[in-house]
Write a structure and sequence with these properties.
This protein is α/β, with parallel strands linked by helices and 544 residues long. It folds into 2 domains: 4-268 and 449-539, Alkaline Phosphatase, subunit A, CATH 3.40.720; 272-292 and 337-444, no CATH class. Helices cover 37% and strands 17% of the residues. It is built from 18 helices and 20 strands. The chain has helices at residues 14-22, 27-35, 49-58, 62-65, 93-99, 142-150, 160-164, 168-193, 204-216, 225-251, 276-282, 295-311, 314-323, 325-335, 370-384, 402-405, 477-484, 531-539; strands spanning 4-9, 37-42, 71-73, 80-82, 104-109, 120-124, 137-138, 197-202, 257-261, 265-268, 346-349, 352-355, 387-388, 396-401, 417-421, 429-432, 435-438, 448-451, 453-459, 467-473. It has a 9-stranded mixed beta sheet with strand order 7-6-5-8-1-9-19-2-20, sandwiched between helices. Strands 13-16-17 form a 3-stranded antiparallel beta sheet, with helices on one face. Helix 9 packs antiparallel against helix 10 (225-251). The chain is globular, with a radius of gyration of 23 Å.
Length: 544
């Protein structure tokens, strides 16, 4: 079988690649598109990176692999805590391949820290605090080799403060350095290890797009033609570098089957998600604890936090968090809304809605069954009535029931109602049944947000020229790789082999049975509020 190379471009949407290809800026990507198939890779229902990348490497939906977000609900409490790869409830693709005797290289895949022992090599992704952390690489001494060859390995780019100052040239410079280092390191590993399957992910694409999307997307509500014209050549230069370095990476395995994937797409950030909690309070679903701090104190603390977040580098913020955990924790709690759980029927975390169901949550008050069903319908109807104050347009694009899309033993960790906001509005405030809904001292948000349609390109000797209109699920990647490796598809995988994209005759019935990993499925062992990682999550607006 030919080797398989998976190239992960975090957050890159198909339309952006098409534009760059049309402008002649990405010849490597253009060659792959012409030679194989391309189109949309549908993300997980909540289209968040942690759940999506985990679905890609397990072939399962979040209700089965157990990861909702970079912060996950903690059993028997209402706390959401940072996670790492030990929170994943299913074995990774790398584990399955390694157990089946295949050699693997995996580099920079999100939610892969700590690196797991396998037949090959692994560089952990951006949940790793630093290259000096235990678990950064497998084997462990690979970290020393990386430092000697590539210097200070950039796990994740810190671009927020530069973007907020309008220093987009600095944003591009940081992103280019990260891409060049990661792809060069992956190329070196592939040359050295000659793996059967290799996967390298760059997250610089997502970070740059989060903070530069108003300069990239011509339909963005805050797009300024003159400003975009000034910065586009530099931003496009980043993608040219990315394309060139991907080409060099693929050059070490010229006969490989190649999958270019992204965990989600990108769109304009409406900011409407910040209005969800105030709306839940105004509508009476979320009841604040009477013991909460005064409005003045909350606003003052929130303002101080926001100023620090915007101007300080991640290392300084991490230093403050590590040395003043009590102060920071109290300030964050004050800037949010402590709930009175004895009267709260629904609340929001990770941008979606959870129902305080009896038997699921420690102080649940909503009875399962008819009462819960009626409440979800009532909340859905109310959300559809939310309108943007300035335009009068509805803010919600789509509502999805969690129990319609999440399946498995950990579906209870997932939201009861998923909210997708419109991307063509920039919402500062909303109106609902004559009431004005706004957020006090809202944080500074990135101009780009996630979109459910990611990128898929499949090319190589095993793939057909299937054109540019394909659509597959992110859960289909792992079973397709297993099939290309001549292995059975594990029963726990929800995804299917991309049979329509494969060359030659392929039977539709490719699931030959279950494969049991030799490793135990890890339990829920959140990494705790690691300061460095927490600031990375804040820099992209994933946590407040």
């Amino acid at each position: 079988m030919p080797p398989i190379v998976i190239v992960g471009l975090d957050g890159v949407p198909p339309a952006l690649l098409a534009r760059l290809v049309d402008e002649g800026r990405m010849p490597t990507v253009a060659r792959l598109m012409d030679a194989g198939a391309s189109g949309v890779l549908e993300s997980t229902p909540n289209f968040q990176s942690a759940s999506a990348w985990t679905s890609l490497v397990t072939g399962a939906n979040p209700g089965r692999h157990g990861i909702l977000h970079f912060t996950n609900p903690t059993p028997n409490s209402y706390r959401f805590e940072q996670i790492n790869a030990e929170a994943r409830r299913l074995p990774s693709l790398w584990r399955l391949l390694s157990d089946a005797g295949r050699k693997v290289v995996a580099a920079n895949v999100p939610v892969s820290f700590p690196a797991e022992p396998l037949g090959g090599a692994m560089i952990a992704g951006w949940l790793c605090p630093s290259p000096a952390s235990d678990g950064f690489t497998y084997p462990p001494d690979l970290a020393t080799d990386l430092r000697q060859r590539f210097g200070d390995y950039p796990i994740h780019p810190d671009v927020r403060r530069h973007a907020l100052r309008g220093q987009y040239d600095r944003v591009v410079e940081i992103a280019i350095r990260g891409v060049r280092t990661k792809l060069a390191a992956a190329k070196w590993l592939i040359e050295r290890a000659e793996p059967d399957v290799a996967c390298v992910v760059v997250t610089e694409t997502d970070s740059l797009q989060h903070w530069c999307w108003h300069l990239i997307d011509r339909e963005h509500p805050e797009h300024d033609t003159a400003e975009a014209a000034r910065w586009w050549p530099k931003i496009a230069g980043f993608y040219e570098t990315l394309d060139s370095d991907v080409g060099e990476l693929l050059g070490v395995a010229p006969d490989a089957d190649v999958l270019v994937v992204s965990d989600h797409g990108q769109a304009a950030n409406s900011g409407a998600q910040l209005l969800l909690r105030p709306w839940l309070i105004g509508a009476g679903y979320l009841v604040a604890d009477r013991r909460q701090k005064s409005r003045f104190v909350r606003r003052a603390l929130s303002g101080a936090l926001e100023l620090t977040k915007n101007v300080a580098p991640n290392r300084l913020k991490a230093w403050l968090r590590a040395r003043l955990p009590g102060v920071v924790g109290r300030a964050q709690a004050a800037s949010g809304v402590p709930a009175d759980w004895s009267r709260t029927r629904a609340w929001t975390e990770t941008g979606h809605i959870f129902v305080n169901t009896r038997g699921v949550w420690p102080e649940g008050i909503v009875e399962p069954g008819a009462e819960r069903e009626a409440l979800i319908e009532e909340i859905s109807a109310g959300l559809r009535e939310l309108t943007d104050v300035r335009s009068g347009q509805p803010l919600v694009a789509e509502l999805t029931r969690g129990d319609a899309v999440f399946e498995g033993p950990y579906a209870w960790l997932m939201p009861d109602l998923l909210v997708r906001w419109r991307n063509d509005l920039r919402a500062r405030a909303a109106r609902w049944r004559g009431i004005s809904i706004r957020r006090e001292a809202p944080p500074t948000l990135p101009t780009g947000a996630h979109h459910p349609d990611g990128t898929l390109i499949a090319a190589g000797p095993s793939f057909a020229q299937a054109g540019g209109n394909v659509r597959q699920s992110i859960m289909d990647v792992a079973p397709t790789v297993m099939h290309l490796c001549g292995l059975s598809i594990p029963a726990q995988m929800d995804g299917e082999v991309m049979v329509d994209l494969l060359a030659g005759h392929v039977t539709k019935d490719v699931r030959a049975g279950a494969v049991k990993s030799r490793c135990d499925v890890p339990g829920n062992s959140p990494s705790g509020h690691d300061a460095v990682v927490y600031e990375r999550l804040r820099s992209l607006g994933y946590v407040e």
